[in-house]
Amino acid sequence: MRWIFAVFLVVSLVGCFGRGPIHPNAVELNRTGAQALAHGDLEVAAARFSLALEYNPGFVEAWINLGLVELARGDLEGAERRFRRALSLDKDAAGAHVGLGAIAEKRGDPALAEKHYRAALAIDPGLAEPRANLGRLLAARGAYDEAREHFLRLVEVQAGDTAGWVGLVEVLLRMDRDAEAADVAERAYARFGPGVPEIELVVARVEMARGAWDAAIARLAPLAPAPTAVGRAAGGWLAFAYLMKGDREAAKKAAKAVLARDPDDTLAKHVLAKANEAPAQ
Q: What stretches of 145-256 adopt beta strand conformation (E)?
């Protein structure tokens, strides 16, 4: 079944500053470049990071951030060069390992991605992004016990972020530990409150595990139209819930809506195939 996380490879804008003092202008350019990057203004971000590097070619954080720009542009080779340049300047540049892990995932090499995420965590165990990404990859290959441990740690490191809570619920459901998953989902809902899409989604997943199809449908239906990864995941589970309830037409409609956005969605394809099967006589 489709993993609920958006495979957004978000890397924190962190890194070491390299050896020697950093020119104040370079620091400010890097700061404002990070702001531009966060707002999706890649051209401005690249210009600012590049100028920061003119002031200080050894500015490790600027190299990492420039790599993030190239990653956002889809230039994997360019991004890799920037991240490796950062590591050549500082072998403990954890953010560069996170970026290289993201590149490995995009190239279809999850084993290498895991290696880089583990390297980042060995440098700084408090980083949330590589721990979330590592937990997701571990779960995807069935290493549920280790994935659970990473999501538990993520909740401790960054309890105010939904990623750890969501990952933990999903892993517990995969491990058939439904009661524990329900407890985590309840605590997450109490912390974040109603209306947070990813939390609403995992609460619906717990309801589905209980066979409460109507409750799950009522929770998923408002989420599914959103043009986001959570919306697509909600749409897939909505289709599944309709199918399990026996409403084939509604299941088909929901699955087709997901496939119109993502033709490769595994869950939606499975539901559509099952809904199109002739009913047993």
A: none
Two structure tokens written together for 157: 């490191």
Angle at 239 between CA 238 and CA 244, to 5 degrees: 95
Whole-number Å distance between alpha carbons of 145 and 114: 16
Task: Kindly give the interhelix angle for 162-174 and 178-192, rounded to the nearest 10 degrees.
Answer: 160
Residue 73 neighbours by CB distance under 10 Å? 13
Q: Which residue has the tokens 């209306």?
A: 195
pTM above 0.70, yes or no: yes
Taking only the tens place, the pLDDT of each residue in 154-181 is 999 899 999 999 999 999 999 999 999 9
Return d(Cα 112, Cα 116) in angstroms, integer. Answer: 6
The pLDDT tens digits of the residues spanning 237-265 come to 999 999 999 999 999 999 999 999 999 99
Contact 30, 60 (CB under 8 A): no
